[in-house]
Amino acid sequence: IYRHCRLPVSISSLCRDRRLFSTRLRAPATSHVYDIHPEVREALRAKRPVVALESTIISHGMPYPQNLDTALAVERIVREEGCVPATIAVLDGRIKVGLSKDDLEKLARTGLKARKTSRRDLALVVSQGVVGATTVSGTMLIAHQAGIKVFVTGGIGGVHRGGEDSMDVSADLTELGRTPVAVICAGAKSILDIERTLEFLETQGVTVVSYGDSDEFPAFYTPKSGYRSIAHLKTPDACASLIKANNDIQLQSGMVIAVPIPSEDAPKDAWRIEKAVLDAVSEANTKGIKGKDITPFLLDRVKQITQGESLKSNIALVKNNARIGSRIAASFAAQCN
Ligand code: PSU
Ligand code: MN
């Protein structure tokens, strides 16, 4: 019980009604703020593979209607690979694990008006009964509460360029350090300081591996960043074994499985995107854009400057991650059953 709720025993022992206390924390499905979709709940009960998906990528990462189309396409891919998709978001103050088509539509249309919700925002968004789009950190923590081990997204947050002064380090990185969920992504965008991002992940105890034939850590639009993961794993089975070992050791920290963008989907001229990134970063500095607004600002500017080429690659890599992440989730379920 105490291991699951991860509270100091002194606090736990203050709670008289231990049965109620443990039930709530171990089975958030029964908690009044969590709405676990019946299909997701049934899959978890039967130990069938479930793949968590985030919602900031829908609200802030892409424009309508491409965001809705991509969200639906990603869910379809997850199903094709024999898994159940669980897109995570807060709708009218309720934490949803698994969204209906109407929920997805609502979120996609709400767009930037949805509150970007990382760990620090979650209680506020729930208490105010508003719409929250969960980031990697918010999605990871909810997935963990629900018992989901594998989470697919596009790119993780990181240490921003100049982060050594601004201290703008994404909550995604500390969440990875404290929550045992595997994040399948295409690495981190070069809007970030990738070298410092990897250093910070090491400090946080996060296992960072690349998927495929190379231990290059991918940089979202490009398969190479010039920096290395600690290893490369060639198959979904090998990735699933990593997740299983993390689980068996009871490491309470997460993993990054970085999947390079397929070469046919990479932008023709990666340098053009890189230049757009540099321009967008300097524009953000000039305009004084900071904090939670900077990532959406940079994503949007890069998209504008590259006239949609970045968006096309973005959609393609998310789909690829969904395919590989689902194979990993399926293999993990098979190894555990
Ligand atoms: N990077 C992307 N696309 C995204 C994000 C990051 O290429 O959509 C989103 C993710 O939800 C990520 C969040 O968790 O931005 C990080 O925001 P911040 O830098 O404010 O922590
Ligand atoms: Mn930040």
UniProtKB/TrEMBL annotation:
Please verify whether the record's keywords include Cell cycle: no
Say yes or no: keyword Protein transport present: no
Keywords in alphabetical order: Glycosidase, Hydrolase, Kinase, Lyase, Manganese, Metal-binding, Transferase
Q: Which GO terms describe its cellular component?
A: cytoplasm
Q: State the Gene Ontology terms under molecular function.
A: hydrolase activity, acting on glycosyl bonds; kinase activity; metal ion binding; pseudouridylate synthase activity
Q: What is this protein called?
A: Carbohydrate kinase PfkB domain-containing protein
Source species: Spizellomyces punctatus (strain DAOM BR117)
Residues of the whole record sequence present: 2 to 338 of 700
